[in-house]
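Q: What residues go here?
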């Protein structure tokens, strides 16, 4: 994509600018994890990142643009999908990756803060949706391969299957204030695989 129409914080040149961006995003993530969205302040982020306030204001402009760039960076830095050769194996790998992220003290707190902010801030909600769309798209080929192998009905919606894996893990984090463990991840993968095999995630335009 050309940088001409990019939102603040989305241009990625190398050198010093890249180092500044990395430091600012680290500081923003730390602040979100420690204090939540309401306490994000560009001047404070600049101080924590040890960069000039003018640089931060010029590049990001406001905290929602900064959070959007943070989520974009997190999506890019996330581990790629694991392909095991079976639907359950692939979904289990996906579930355990999500579980490890949510169980991490910093990352789990960060996601809770962003999700909370997304309920009342439209731009943050849009950024969060883009983050999850990116991660779901990364794992969709695993489900498509299972369809091609005959493990799932041909009209299965791969995106819905991937979403079904992580949904109970986020629900547990947000409703119990306790991060999911590996057993919860395995159950989520098994449930999603069983439901997919039973045809629970067929596309709406007809049966397989």
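A:
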């Amino acid at each position: 994509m050309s940088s001409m129409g990019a939102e603040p914080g989305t241009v990625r040149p190398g050198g010093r600018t890249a180092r500044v961006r990395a430091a600012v995003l680290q500081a923003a993530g730390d602040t979100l994890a420690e204090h939540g969205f309401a306490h994000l302040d560009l001047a404070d982020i600049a101080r924590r990142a040890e960069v000039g306030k003018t640089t931060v204001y010029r590049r990001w402009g406001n905290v929602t643009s900064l959070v959007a760039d943070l989520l974009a960076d997190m999506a890019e830095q996330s581990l790629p999908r694991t392909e095991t050769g079976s639907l359950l194996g692939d979904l289990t790998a996906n579930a355990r990756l999500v579980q490890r992220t949510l169980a991490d003290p910093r990352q789990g707190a960060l996601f809770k803060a962003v999700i909370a902010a997304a309920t009342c801030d439209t731009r943050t909600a849009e950024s969060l949706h883009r983050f999850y769309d990116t991660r779901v798209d990364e794992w969709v080929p695993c489900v498509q391969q299972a369809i091609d192998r005959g493990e799932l009905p041909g009209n299965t919606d791969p995106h819905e299957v991937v979403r079904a894996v992580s949904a109970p893990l986020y629900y547990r984090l947000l409703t119990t204030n306790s991060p999911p463990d590996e057993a919860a991840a395995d159950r989520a993968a098994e449930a999603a695989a069983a439901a997919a095999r039973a045809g629970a995630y067929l596309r709406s335009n007809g049966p397989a």
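A: Context that may help when evaluating the design: The chain is about 70% helix and 0% strand. Confidence is low (pLDDT under 50) at residues 1-13.
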